[in-house]
Amino acid sequence: MAGTISISNTRASSEEIMQEILPQVKALLGDERDEIACMANIASVLQEVFNFHWIGFYRVLGDGLVLGPFQGPVACTRINYGKGVCGTSWAQNATLVVDDVDTFPGHIACSALSKSELVVPIRDANGTVKAVLDIDSERLAAFDEGLQKGMEQICAMLAKQIYP
Ligand code: SME
Question: Which residue range forms the structural domain that includes residue 94?
Answer without folding.
Answer: 14-162
